[in-house]
Design goal:
alpha/beta, Rossmann fold, 9 helices, globular
């Protein structure tokens, strides 16, 4: 039996990526979509061949046929509607970042445990097999001991002045939007939590005083660091480099998937360069399948919801560092 999904909002990311991903998955079915404008919901449902359209989020959550919901609302609405969905007995896939801060994330996870449902953060790249392949290379000793990680994710949307990413009170800014990718990737690869953050940012008066560009340093154990930059007012980049004592791994397309050779990654050592071919897959479909299988089997997700709290603690520290122009220690536990 497939998992029937409801989509709360007609957001671009839902239409462009997540809905097609669920449709392509083996376990999921996009059953309904909701908007606060019923005409918008009906138009989107017709365009994407979704059977049911609702003119309110509440109507969708009241539908007993829907088992799971995807929430791509602006960041400041993640907590409210995730909790309402979970209280209605729905499993939730919430767009990243899961909340505005670690405290909100804790409240959301408490609600999921109380309701006995799944709460997952939508980091689609983590489900791509390339990261298991990269982990195997690291564990094999191919690049020696890890000495550092460098990640970048930038794009230019500065001209779209009405973009929700430019509303500070809504959780706008590049750290929330794309900085979370290299941050979560470093935590996943190192299997550690950073001890401190230092971030320098460009806050733009033209864009609601959000950070349109940020460059940061996260301190991990044993002198290992993540250096990263993220931005919404810069040329497109989407890369990750893992530096070791005996070599390095270069991932030219680390978070966004393209149907070309750029999706492969490279292992550079003294013996030369190995191009590791990565199969083309829909990482949004893989994400839906992992969640669907967990719903059906009752098994835990590979990235438990508590991971979202840790990621938000790091993001909280990064934002505080950028605003206060100082190094911020990250509390453990």
């Amino acid at each position: 039996m497939t998992v029937k999904w409801g989509i709360i909002s007609t957001a671009n990311i839902a239409q462009r990526a997540v809905i097609p991903g669920i449709k392509e998955s083996e376990t999921g079915e996009v059953y309904a979509i909701a908007s606060r404008n019923v005409d918008n919901a009906k138009e989107t449902a017709e365009k994407l061949a979704i059977p049911v359209a609702y003119g309110s989020y509440e109507e969708l959550l009241a539908d007993p046929d829907i088992e799971a919901v995807y929430i791509p609302l602006p960041n400041h609405l993640h907590k409210e509607w995730s909790i309402k969905a979970m209280e209605a007995g729905k499993h939730v896939l919430c767009e990243k970042p899961i909340a505005l801060n670690a405290k909100e994330a804790e409240e959301m996870i408490d609600a999921s445990k109380k309701a006995g449902v799944i709460l997952a953060e939508a980091f689609m790249y983590r489900y791509h097999p390339r990261y298991r392949m990269i982990e195997e290379k690291i564990q094999s000793g191919a690049i020696g001991e890890i000495r550092g990680i460098h990640g970048v994710f930038t794009f230019n949307s500065a001209g779209a002045k009405e973009n929700v990413r430019f509303k500070k009170e809504w959780g706008g800014g590049s750290l929330y939007d794309v900085g979370v990718y290299p941050i979560s990737a470093a935590r996943m690869i190192l299997k550690q939590e950073p001890e401190a953050a230092t971030v320098h940012a460009l806050f733009s008066e033209q864009h609601g005083d959000v950070d349109m560009m940020a460059s940061g340093l996260l301190e991990f154990e044993n002198g290992v660091a993540l250096t990263f930059d993220c931005g919404m007012w810069a040329d497109f980049r989407n890369r990750l480099e893992i530096l070791g004592t005996e070599g390095k791994i270069e991932v030219p397309s680390a978070f966004v998937v393209n149907q070309n050779e750029q999706d492969h990654f490279y292992v550079h050592t003294s013996e030369g360069t190995e191009e590791v071919e990565v199969p083309y897959v829909n990482q949004y479909a893989l994400q839906a399948d992992v969640i669907g299988q967990s719903i059906r089997s009752g098994e835990e997700l590979p990235f438990p919801s508590d991971d979202a709290i840790q990621n938000m603690k790091v993001l909280d520290a990064c934002l505080a560092s950028a605003e206060q122009r100082k190094r911020v220690e990250i509390k453990k536990g």
